[in-house]
Amino acid sequence: MAENKIFAGPKVRRIRNTLGLTQTAMAQALSISPSYLNLIERNQRPLTVQLLLRLASVYKVDLEDLQGEASGIARQLREVFADPLLAGELPGDQELVEVADAAPNVAGGILKLYRAYREQALRLSDLAELLSREGRATSLAGARLPVDEVREKLEQRPNYFDGIDVAAERFHEALAPADDLMGALRAWLKREHGVVVRLLPIHAMPTLRRRFDRHSMRLFLSERLSMHDQLREVAMEAVQIVLQDEITAELDQLGLSGGEARRIARFELARYAAHALMMPYESFCSAAQRVRFDIDALRSRFSVSYEQAANRLTMLQRPGRPAIPFFLLEIDNAGHRLRRAGAQGFPQARFGGGCPKLNIHAAFAQPGQVIVDRVEMPDGAAFLLVSRTLEGPQSAFGERVRRTALLIGCDAAMAAETVYGEAVGQCAPIPVGTACRLCERQGCLARAEPPVTRPLGLDEMVAGLSLFDFQ
């Protein structure tokens, strides 16, 4: 039977150096020649099963240490080099394995430096936010991807684009769709541009939502999409033709720095325009006020999804015809922030959105249920929050369902104008904060990080309710 062979020369050399042995002394104890041990340490000869057993017997070496991947250091190095700052530095993982194997102390130093870098970046971000809340603008910024630049631009400004909204309303009137917008759009695309809309099964478009074939003039949609999402994809295709000038004009106003950022922003503006076409401003705003901003009633009235109706509520800020200034936050079940928007810009300074006690996190435990809360910030500001889970595109057999959670909120002073205000009634508000690192609430059971503004006050004689007691 062939012997199992393991190359672990650097580890053997490290054991010998730790014990202060020469190659001759170790070779004698292992009953091999010094020259053979030298080849082993240079990874030019393998460790056989017999030699592994001798090492374990003579030097009490744990065989897992010799066979493992440097105790997980290589895996941690992969996480470091997955950072956008370093992602292009290595063609593969082999160099990381070699570093972890041959120089684990050096690898450990790299990990410590990277952790310190990330910690400092977080602290700078937190301090920059604190300064901005006090009205002091800062130029501190880390390396950002184009999508980060687009998100920042869109989150800081009102989620209303007048040129796009007005043009979308005119286009809707011209279509005269009655109760069948999808049929009207299909007919318009075929009549005016020769484009035919076709649905394709999952196996034909396994990774795409929509694809336009310019040669055959066909717009393909995936069967993964719900009827509401299919309508949005067709509407996006139409508005990029009809509203091209309005979208470009709003895009120029954003002042983005590169072509990739402009491409991402153009997609977001086309998505905005599609919502404006599906739910024209005047009729949607009037209906929203009549049903007291009941999202489920609106989704039924306009044949759209819960997510689409909630998005549209954050866009109702037309000059002379504004509605409640709602804001919106969407996350996945790992807590990653996917989207933030607001009728007056997302209220980052006042609301934050990073508190673990927000009902958007509790929504995952009650899929499909609407959860309503009134929350209060440390400075006394109060908000009405409505959260619910959303289901992603239809998954194939064996695929895990993509589920996210959506939070839509407004100032608590306007809660009485909504149907959700009745749900909170006279209940005491839930105390929350902007984010753990910026919150100074004492004894918070949900605290996940210490505040950056206060020194930790750990006392071996006293233990508080929070994991991070502070002075």
From TrEMBL:
Residues 12-66 form the HTH cro/C1-type domain. CDD domains: HTH_XRE. Pfam families: HTH_3, Peptidase_M78, ScfRs. Keywords: DNA-binding, Transcription, Transcription regulation. Belongs to the short-chain fatty acyl-CoA assimilation regulator (ScfR) family. This is Short-chain fatty acyl-CoA regulator family protein. It comes from Mycoplana ramosa (Mycoplana bullata). The lineage of its organism: Bacteria, Pseudomonadati, Pseudomonadota, Alphaproteobacteria, Hyphomicrobiales.
